[in-house]
Amino acid sequence: MALWGGRFSQAADQRFKQFNDSLRFDYRLAEQDIIGSIAWSKALVSVHVLSEQEQQTLEQALNELLASVRHDPAQILQNDAEDIHSWVEQQLIGKVGDLGKKLHTGRSRNDQVATDLKLWCKTEIPYLVIAINHLRQMLVDTAEKHQSAVMPGYTHLQRAQPITFAHWCLAYYEMLTRDVSRLNDTLNRLDVSPLGCGALAGTSYPIDRQQLASWLDFSSATNNSLDAVSDRDYVMELLSDASIGMMHLSRFAEDLIIFNSGEAGFVELSDRVTSGSSLMPQKKNPDSLELIRGKVGRVVGALTGALVTFKGLPLAYNKDMQEDKEPLFDALDTWHACLDMATLVLEDIKINDTKCQESAKQGYANATELADYLVAKGIPFREAHHIVGEVVVYAIAKQKALEELTLAELKTFSPTIDEDVYVILSLESCLAKRSAKGGVAPSQVKSAIIKAKQDLSKNGR
Ligand code: ARG
Q1: Which of 53, 166, 292, 356 is the S-S candidate for 253 at Cβ 3.0 to 4.6 Å?
Q2: What is the pLDDT of residue 182?
């Protein structure tokens, strides 16, 4: 029997019921619905709707239900209740009889679902933060191991300047640090309880909503009942956190796919995270990374979908809003899975130092060094840039690296060039010179690793 049967003389068409019911996905809110219901039962004592005795009976039954749901969440799906709120109420009535029917006094499913979903987000966010922190830790560990692996850094996917694999790892570490801080911002903003807002206009019982909020561990209660039951900003914020986080992971994946290609050969992925081809026996495909790169699509799709669903919705609750859950659950599950997979990929990745170093030496990645060298000798940078451009054209024609040109050859472009240029053109010097904060110099990378380790040990913040 639906919660709202009284006004109806005909049963719902089975096809409508299937279309309308949300239990098959909102069963994930069971724990939150029960915990919210316990708090609500206490509020009902304060306004004399329930006696202490009745409340205790309800609380005990709800706690039993909570334990049973934790033990076997799949049991919920064996039921044809409309949604998780109906299911919890039905189970409660099954346990305590008519007393269970009092629980919904002064409450609506509108403030209830808003509360449940916020409580769910509040438990989910810390799990995501843990997964991000595992990957941050793995990036720092990988950086620490590969501080001397020099490789080309790219802009426009053209070799630009040498970097180290460690510096590359730490770039992703920074992105993921911001992902954590974004989640914490979202968490702070959503930490406001909608319970006690009723259907839309507020509850008609003089409930202390602030106290009710604190029982549920919310930091405060919402200011406006219309807003409280209509607000799903936090869903969209979380989806946007997930989209940005996934965008980071997709870049991470794409970089590694390139580094792992036959053409680059900078890294080798382990057999544990690659798959073979059914036709071509030689192949070892980076499926783990391709899936990470690909899954960003469904997460951004979830964000776009939610924004479009909510755009132009009149206040207050509309059933359209039931469409918030599946994309949210899917996007956060996907993000979590991709974080775990990215961590696994790094776990036993091999770096081919020789291949990295050879490539770093090619592509005139030290051309900026030569320009800076000329600047140090008193030539204005613009002019120096032009001279080096000409040197590069010459070197390409000779199929030589800059450091392979003789001093006589170099002097034809600028007589200021001397024997000391060769030290400047070495990879070591290219790296060491970039010692300002955040640069690729080994000393900077080392201190970045120390700082990251300290931050991670302070609870990952
Ligand atoms: N299943 C609904 C949802 O997810 C619960 C709220 C129902 N409220 C209502 N007035 N029908 O949004």
Answers
A1: 292
A2: 98
